[in-house]
Design goal:
This protein is α/β, with parallel strands linked by helices and 370 residues long. It folds into two domains: 5-285, NADP-dependent oxidoreductase domain (TIM Barrel, Alpha-Beta Barrel); 306-368. It is built from 16 helices and eight strands. β6, α8 (183-192) and β7 form a beta-alpha-beta unit. The structure holds iron/sulfur cluster (2 copies). The site of one iron/sulfur cluster has 15 residues, from α15 and α16. One iron/sulfur cluster is lined by residues 300-302, 304, 306, 341-347, 357-358, 361.
Length: 370
C-alpha cells in the first residue's frame, strides 16, 4: 500500500514583513513551489482567509500561471463564518476560483466546522451545496475541515457521511489522546465511516518542533531523527491518511519535510510508545496549548495579538527572559495589551484549539503586568 503524501499548506508562507500576513515573499515562495514540484510532490492547500486573503493569489502566481493544471492538485475552503444565506456558497466559491485562476478544485472543503460554525453552514445548506458542486464538476472531492470534539463529528457524519469524501482533521502525537482535541477518537470515526483523512497541524503550529531543551535531549538520546520528522511520520502512519499538510515557511523546512516523505518509514509500535511518552513530556513544558493558527485574530475588536501573547507567555513560563518582556511591551503598545480584552467572546468561536481565550489573556496580563 502506498503511504500518505506531503501537502504544502499555504497558511504560513514566507513573509517580507513579519507583522503583515499579506506581505508574502513571492521570490522565496516561488522557489519553494518549484522545489516541491521537482521532488515529485504536487498537493497544495489554501483557503479564502489565509494570509489576509492573499494566499490564493500567491498560489495563482507561483503555481497556476507556471504549471499545467493537470500537474498539481489544489484544495480550498469555503469560509463558513461569511455565510449568511444559501447564495453565499456559490458567490464565495466563484471568488475562490477566480483568485486562483482555475476552473475546478481538486478538493473543496467547508472550513472550520465546530460547534459554533456548523450553524451558518447548515443554515446556508453548505453540505447540499458541496454535493452539487461536485456533480457540476467544480470539485473532484468535497468535505470538511474540522476543529471540534468527536461527538460533533459523529453527528456530522450521521447526517452527511454520504456527501463527505474528505475530512481535514488535526492529528498529531501530542493531541492523540488529548481530552480536548481528541485526535484518535476523531481519526477512528473517520475510519469507521470510510472517510479519507487529510491531516493539518502535524507539528501543531511549530509546538512539536520548537520544544524545550529538556525534551530535545530526550529525542536526541533516542535516535538521530529530526524532531519534525517524528511528527510527520506519526501523522502519515495512521490508517486512511492520504495527505499530511505542512505549513512550510522556508525552503530549508521544505527540504527536510520532503526527505521524510521520500524515505518514509512507518512508525513502529515501540516508536509509538516513545512518542506518547514525549507527548506527556512536551505537555509539562507548555502553559497554553495554542497552535498559532491565527484564526482568532482578525475579528478581535480590541486588536489583541492573541497567539503572539500566548507564545510569549509559554516562553516566559519556561525561560524567564528579559526579551519576552520587551517583546510583550512593544506588541502591547503597537496593538493592545492582554488586559484590553473586553471578553466579547468572538475569538472563542474561531479558536481551533477550543481555548478559553479571555480567561487565558487574564493570565497573560497578570504575568506581564498589563
Ligand atoms: S474576547 Fe477579548 S480577545 Fe477575544 S475577540 Fe473579544 S476582545 Fe478580542
Ligand atoms: S488562540 Fe486558538 S485560534 Fe488563536 S492562534 Fe491559538 S489556537 Fe489559533
Amino acid at each position: 500500500m502506498t503511504h500518505a503524501t506531503l501537502g504544502f499548506g499555504a497558511m504560513r508562507l514566507p513573509q517580507t514583513d513579519a507583522g503583515n500576513p499579506a506581505s508574502i515573499d513571492m521570490e522565496e515562495f516561488t522557489r519553494m513551489v518549484d522545489y516541491f514540484m521537482e521532488q515529485g510532490f504536487n498537493y497544495f492547500d489554501t483557503s479564502y482567509a489565509y494570509h489576509g486573503e492573499t494566499s490564493e493569489g500567491a498560489l495563482k502566481k507561483a503555481l497556476v500561471e507556471r504549471y499545467p493544471r493537470e500537474s498539481y492538485q489544489i484544495a480550498n475552503k469555503i469560509p463558513t463564518w461569511l455565510l449568511r444565506q444559501e447564495e453565499d456558497n456559490d458567490r464565495l466559491v466563484e471568488i475562490m476560483l477566480e483568485r486562483l485562476g482555475i476552473e475546478y478544485f481538486d478538493v473543496l472543503l467547508i472550513h472550520n466546522i465546530n460547534k459554533a460554525l456548523i450553524h451558518p453552514a447548515e443554515a446556508a445548506n453548505s453540505f447540499e451545496y458541496i454535493k452539487k458542486a461536485k456533480e457540476e464538476g467544480k470539485a473532484l472531492k468535497v468535505g470538511i475541515s474540522f476543529h471540534e470534539k468527536a461527538e460533533l463529528l459523529e453527528e456530522v457524519f450521521e447526517k452527511y457521511a454520504d456527501v463527505i469524501d474528505v475530512a481535514l482533521i488535526q492529528l498529531n502525537y501530542m493531541d492523540w489522546t488529548d481530552q480536548r482535541i481528541q485526535s484518535k477518537k476523531i481519526h477512528d470515526l473517520c475510519v469507521k465511516y470510510g472517510i479519507e483523512i487529510q491531516v493539518m497541524e502535524p507539528v501543531k503550529g511549530g509546538t512539536l518542533v520548537n520544544v524545550a531543551d529538556s525534551v530535545k535531549r530526550q529525542f536526541e538520546e533516542y535516535s538521530d531523527n529530526s524532531i519534525a520528522d517524528w511528527a510527520l511520520r506519526f501523522a502519515a502512519s495512521q490508517e486512511n491518511v492520504s495527505v499530511v499538510l505542512s505549513g512550510m515557511s522556508n525552503l530549508q523546512q521544505m527540504k527536510e519535510n520532503c526527505e521524510t516523505f521520500k524515505n518514509f518509514e512507518k512508525i513502529t509500535p515501540e516508536e509509538h510508545r516513545f512518542l506518547m511518552k514525549m507527548a506527556r513530556e512536551i505537555k509539562k513544558t507548555l502553559a497554553i496549548d495554542c497552535s498559532f493558527c491565527n484564526y482568532c485574530v482578525k475579528d478581535c475588536e480590541m486588536n489583541i495579538p492573541i497567539p503572539d501573547f500566548f507564545n510569549l507567555y509559554n516562553s516566559e513560563k519556561v525561560y524567564h527572559l528579559e526579551s519576552n518582556v520587551d517583546l510583550y511591551n512593544t506588541s502591547a503598545r503597537v496593538y493592545a495589551p492582554a488586559s484590553a480584552c473586553s471578553e466579547c467572546g468572538t475569538c472563542v468561536d474561531m479558536c481551533t484549539q477550543q481555548l478559553d481565550i479571555p480567561a487565558l489573556l487574564k493570565d497573560v496580563a497578570k504575568l506581564f503586568g498589563k
